[in-house]
Amino acid sequence: MAAPTATATLNASTYSPGDQMTLTVAYSDADTRPLTVTVVVTDALGNSSAPARVTAVLDPLTVTVADDSGRTWTRVSDNGSVAVYRAVA
Amino acid sequence: MPRVTVTVRDSAGRTVTTTATYSVAAPVLGGYYLSGGADPTADMAGGNFRSLTQYRSFADGYTFPGYNRPWLTNLGRAAVAINMVLELKHYGAADGPQTFTVDGVSYTVPAPAMTIQQRPGTTWPRAYGYGQVLAGQCDGLFARALAQYRTLGFGVNIQLASELDTDHEFGTTEAGRAYTWAESDARAVQAMTYIVNWFKARPLPAGTTFSVGVGGFDRACFQRTHPEALMAKLDFLQWNVYATAPEHTALARFRRTKDWAVADLGPVALSRPVIIAEWGVRVAEIPDQAKWIATVPAAIAALNAERGPRIVRTNYFNSGWGTLSPKADGLAALRAAYATRPYV
To answer: What is the CATH class of B26-338?
Structure first.
């Protein structure tokens, strides 16, 4: 099992009061894998149902963001490898 | 400096933590200058005016706070940030040499030996020469200004020269020798370095900072007058901003010199915040000054959101090209602008 990796990047180093700040988190883990389970039910006469699919993630990752100035960072997107957060300066 | 901590955890509880730091700048200081160096207190009252530009000649025997200007002391003590432009340009005193005593030491300073602003068809103003400064002949002027400065009770930004580009645009002449614009810039850099070194070698009021003055209208001059060695001794970049044509937008006018700075100057210069010692809208070409002024906060916010030096003070120049007419409308527009981000 591997440890996760992450990088955090702000869109600026200095903000004016009231500016929108954007934080981009890129993260991954070598063990994290998408998984799709497909179920087909077949009866004794050989009639099969349509395939039903469910997806899952092996070793899923959770991302948390904390700010020591008390600002609240809100997640605006997350595709499983890049999460974008916003806060107000 | 605020810090964001990002933690990524997998299903087995293994975590990785990374951080990013940022800073939130103080609001930009909205400022003012009133024609003739007159008392601006009444105009500033009731508005978010937190910055002021003043002009004095080193020749003047009353540099700090200035002759009959107790209001400057009052404003400074009320935490208005003062940008004090100290000029080698000669005014406020009779022509000729001066002899005076500072802290028990007698100084004799010769008559100014340089001419500047040599626009054809005009009378060229006199100034103490860069050669005179480097020869130590003006040390008494600096000593006199410093002695008065120490009695103020607060620190100021000392801006050496008002606009070096305006001073040098048509060349200079010192002691009968003519110098080109570029030669004058190089000589000024040496003289400004000498003056900053002279002040910094002595105890200064807390909060004292330094800059050199330019109009900022000529890219090559801007680069020549901002070498890294000088910028290392200075605390601010500075330029002035005027709208003098109908198509001039606030964003374009404030950004012109910034773009040159970002393209041409070194990392030390670019680490310094910017004082706009003068900005103004010329009513002849832009009759609705108030409308133009209202666009300034967004322009400053946009520029400060870009990379490069941040603009931290903008002082409206209610004189000359910037004269507010009608004054009441202009002042109301300034008050409204300075009550808006990024000024609050």
So the answer is: alpha beta
